[in-house]
Amino acid sequence: MKNEILKKIEISNEILSIMPRSTEDEKRLFINESKKTYAEYNLYKIQIINELKQRKTHIESIVKEEPYQEYNFEDIICKMKLLNTINTSYEKLRLDKSLLGLKKFYKSNLVDVNNYIFDTLEIFRKVGIILSEKDFFYDESVKLYISELVSVDRSNYIIDNIKIKFEQLYWKAPKIITYIQLNFKSVYFKNIKIFNKYIDKIHKESDKKIEDLNNEYGCKVIERDNYFNSSSKYFLESFVNEKLSLKDYTNENIRKISSQFFDGDVFLKEKTIISLEKTLSEYKTYIKFNFIVEEIRKEILGKSKEKINSGSKLKEISKLEKQLIRAIKKKESLKDEIVEKIIIAYDEYDELYFKEKLFGYMNNKSKIIDAFKFAISYYEYFIKLSKKNDEDITIDEINDNLKELEMFVRSPYNMFINNLEILGGYDVALIVLDRYKLENINITKEDIEKDALDTAIKNISLLCNYYKIAKLEKIDLSKIIEYYKINNLLKKVK
Prior knowledge:
The structure is a single chain. Helices cover 72% and strands 0% of the residues. The chain is an all-alpha fold. It is elongated and about 115 Å long.
């Protein structure tokens, strides 16, 4: 039909081109003939558009029959974090995050600082402790500012009024935010049994153990991936939205990629391709966060025989706070000096605390994944290692990395990080290569070097998708190409 129409257009153009247009009558005849020609081909256009719409609707109706399934992991992840057996109530209830925000207040604005304070007050309220200005003893300015904040509705307070109050207090006590942060820590440790009891209650009331939740999460991830991997609608939309490119899925490109890695028919290697894709993705994330493994490995190897006791440092802080209260009552000038000692003592406590928890969880037989699990369980420790690895990294980048590592640790597809010991001294790249050489896959060390790894993963993913599309029940690649072209044509003629 296309060739016939093109031939007719050519003839019509030729007829119109030789028609005389000198006189008015000739011009009228030319215009009438042009209108007649336009009407004829506009009718063709309408017929073609209708035909295209029918084909498009037909393909859409095929994939529309697929049941849509939504997957939400928020609830189960929240439960997993609360039932985490590695960290404590301090981390589970996110006190570590809000108090770290106050500690680094100079990187925030007053709205953020207030939100950290509101968050912390809410955490205390959650466990049954209603804080008021009476619980704050580091400075009179702290009492006045806390009194101001607890008297307003967080969702509907006038920040300008708070700013005026804060400015009045700040010039009298420039360390007011530090005082608030230290005071919150003090109240937490005085009430730590209440916090632990709250978490213990959650554990007891939970109908599932953390191991059950981990298995349930893994099963849901596999179920979700199987759904999308076999969804005609998902692949069709992926090409239409250009998440996937049809240029990558030509027979020529698929043959080219296949011949790079495999000798023979790609479809004979389907399970191996999928396994390789997952392993390369695992290796990529492992490389990105290997600095954590290296730091924890150093800690384990350098572990002292001397027992670590963070509790003794808390007793020291308690004594200093009693000295502080006396100094405030007597209006002594030692106050600032004592506060500085408390700040140093808390920093020393944090160092002892993380080592104590690390050595309580990790040992010489621990796996690589255990290092990652520990790091994601302690927000401040994760930040510390991230900053040590890259001093220019921003807090937003750190938070994004934390989310990525959390998802990675929970993945049901991990293989070598679940099995290789952290002190094993393995050449992980060589282990990966040797594993797939046994399957006659032509993958080299150069393919999985940092600069080339993304390309290798992309190419293997293309082969995986090509195989998945070939197995789709409702449509195939030719239908996807047809739909893609129709969709683009209809966009142009609108």
